[in-house]
Amino acid sequence: MRFINPKTDFAFKKIFGSNQSKPILISFLNAMIYDGHPTITDLEIIDPYLASRVQYLKDSYLDVKARLAGGATVIIEMQVLNVESFAKRVVYNTAKTYSTQLIRGEGYFKLKPVIALTITDFEMFDNDREVISHFVFKEKKRLFDYVDPEIELIFIELPKFNKQLDELETLTDKWIYFMKNAPSLEVIPQTMETVSEIQQAFAIANETNLNPEELADLEARERYILDQQGILRKGIEEGMQLGMQQGMQLGMREKALEIARQLLNVLDNQTISQTTGLSVEDIQNLREE
């Protein structure tokens, strides 16, 4: 058997955001957010496209979005490319999801918590070796919570996870291993067969269950990601040779603009923005040039 790469946007949405994905997503979120405890018992998978209620706010696109039984919203994003200002984009998307819950005249008591779960195929926090980082609002010195957590940011950094199959113990271990290693496996590992939701995820990820059009789309996306990783690495190297951080950032932006121009006739503004880290406004300006 061959399994598709869950780190691509197409595969991630197919595995975790399709109609049959509800039990898979519940298990995955319990593993990532609640240390494997069955805290989430029900959810609704909803359209992750965030059409802003406020005209001046940029549109955003996330991989999967779900509303939990208690009303909280979870936004899930798989990010492969370490693009400029990605950390700011995570905060922006989370704050936007929280702030656009209300329509004019509604009371703030109607606001529900928002959890942003971000899985990265690169290291975000160089000064820390933990795979999972969980951020909430706390008092700076005495570290007590700002009322109940209304906004939470959770990051899963896949490169920091180095456990082998015989070392997998928890549900969290098994899901992270699936995310990182599924494409290199030929069979479902015995240690993971005991989790029915992971078995279902492998079944969806089995290439034999994809039609030729889906396979062609997936292969094109994987080639594109590899190409862009090479371009971004080259941009970083060129920027470092300049010897100045400002020069490096400028070089990366120019590379991102170059990539975006190549994609104008292939992808929509939101997808290009997600891929390059540029704003939707930047992409639209390129179309109007």
Explain how this protein is built.
The chain has 289 residues and is α/β, with parallel strands linked by helices. Strand 5, helix 3 and strand 6 form a beta-alpha-beta unit. Helix 1 crosses helix 5. About 3% of the residues have low confidence.
Which terms would index this structure?
alpha/beta; 6-stranded mixed sheet; two-stranded antiparallel sheet; 9 helices
Structure, briefly:
The protein is of the alpha/beta class.
Summarize the helices and strands and which ones pair or pack.
Blueprint: H1 9-16, H2 22-33, E1 43-46, E2 49-50, E3 60-61, E4 64-68, E5 73-79, H3 86-99, E6 114-120, E7 132-135, E8 151-157, H4 171-181, H5 196-205, H6 212-242, H7 245-263, H8 269-276, H9 280-288
Parallel strand pairs: 5-6, 6-8
Antiparallel strand pairs: 1-4, 2-3, 4-5, 7-8
Give the fraction of residues assigned to helices: 40-55%
Q: What would you call the shape?
A: globular
User: End-to-end span in angstroms?
Assistant: 47 Å
Number of continuous helical runs: 9
What does the radius of gyration come to?
Answer: 20 Å
Order of strands, main sheet, comes to: 1-4-5-6-8-7
Structural class: alpha/beta
Report strand %: 5-15%
How many E-type strands? 8
State the order of secondary-structure elements, H for helix, E for strand: HHEEEEEHEEEHHHHHH
Mean pLDDT: 85
Low-confidence stretches: 50-59
- For the report, how would you describe the main beta sheet? 6 strands, mixed
